[in-house]
Amino acid sequence: MNLATIKSKEIMPGCHGKMIHGQKLSWAFWNIEKGSIIPDHQHHHEQIMHVVNGKFEFTLNGNTQVYTSGDIVHINSNSPHSGRALTSCEIMDVFSPVRNEYR
Question: Could you tell me the domains of the chain?
Fold first, then answer.
């Protein structure tokens, strides 16, 4: 498998993702357009976010910070979170268990 051969899906406006699914986790590679907003939400999945490139304003449990290239954030299950791309961003997310709605 090669990431370049995986078809991108626009999951939310301006949020384009390539998804890989294992038995117990999903790995998402996002290209997020500048100004795109990820609305406040929560889910039962544990999540780890890695900002590969760009500046991403992220709110977790009411605490807002700007994350940049190399930053990593752990998001516990059922923790409210949201985000906004301050620049075009490349972000990787790992979810456990599998995000079936991303298949």
Answer: 26-102 (2.60.120.10)
